[in-house]
Amino acid sequence: MSSASHHPSANQTAAGGAKQQLASKLASCSAYSLAEAPPPFLASASMAAALFSFRAAALAALLVAVMAACGARGQLQPSNASADSQERSLLSYSGGWIPAKATWYGAPTGAGPDDNGGACGFKHTNQYPFSSMTSCGNEPIFKDGKGCGSCYQIRCVKSNHPACSGVPQTVVITDGLNDKLRHAGIIDMQFRRVPCNFPGLTINFVVQHGSNPMYLAVLVEFEDKDGDVVQVDIMQHNSGYWEPMHESWGSIWRIDPNRPLKGPYSLRITNESGKQLVAKNIIPDNYIPNTNYRSYVQY
């Protein structure tokens, strides 16, 4: 065997370096919790961070968290186009497992504070389909709110602690090892992006408090596949054209055109892959704020 065969290629070296750089960024401010209920499970977030849906078979109440201050988003150094491209590749479905650090915080069965849905706007995260507890996430996966709803699989690494199986499907709290992990300090973990799947659910729209004839804000949730939304457009009654809505924060989109709006309203959502779905006349003209309007569409 030649000596060259013992060394990684330039592409392998670059990929490894990108993965370490991303892990370093993620270590600036992320925390994830796994739910006690069956999948899907979700890690919700404080207002300083993000809300993400994580899924793996029968994972349970073990917090896996990338450690550091949750306000560290502003401390991240700007990256060039090449580095951004590498990050997107690593956070794609084929990006593989990304290393990170984890620890436990908060109450073992806590569902998180009542903070208006965290930085993504998702509320009632302790209920189906999320059945989750609380965590925080940082910029590489928060994406200024565009990452809200993305799904990740998580596993802790057995080489760091004997209570870790290293296999996502078998990290199940049935034998009391959850207490050992909660007292284990910082442990190694890995995560990777996976397609979202909300069995039996279609995309849901929640009209936000404060909406009125001159202003409409809507939360979008439960999107299969990519799980996130990068654009929402609205068509008013008999207008015949789409108007762009603007991201208010997280997964909440608004339109405030300084003129009266007329329903019923159709909504068109675009996910990260560029696929669009239309929920026709989904929100009535006489909508009620804080009300769910369940569509018939799903990715």
Protein model, in words:
The chain is an alpha+beta fold and 299 residues long. 12% of the residues lie in helices and 25% in strands. The longest helix is centred in the first third of the chain and has 17 residues, at 10-26.
Number of separate helices: 4
CATH topology value of the largest domain: Barwin-like endoglucanases
The CATH class designation of the largest domain is: Mainly Beta
- Which spans have pLDDT < 50 for at least 5 consecutive residues? 1-15, 20-79, 169-176
How many β-strand stretches?
A: 17
Structural class: alpha+beta
Shape field: elongated
Query: Could you state the CATH homologous superfamily of the largest domain?
Result: RlpA-like domain
Strand order of the largest sheet: 5-8-7-3-2-6
Count of distinct structural domains: 2
- Mean pLDDT across the residues is 67
Q: Main beta sheet: strand number and arrangement? A: 6 strands, mixed
Q: How much beta, percentage-wise? A: 25-35%
- Helix content range of the residues, please? 10-25%
Radius of gyration from the CA trace? 20 Å
CATH architecture of the largest domain: Beta Barrel
Order of helical and strand elements: HEEEEHEEHEHEEEEEEEEEE
End-to-end C-alpha gap: 49 Å
Domain Expansin-like CBD: 214-295
GO cellular component, one term: extracellular region
Pfam families: DPBB_1, Expansin_C
Keywords: Cell wall, Cell wall biogenesis/degradation, Glycoprotein, Secreted, Signal
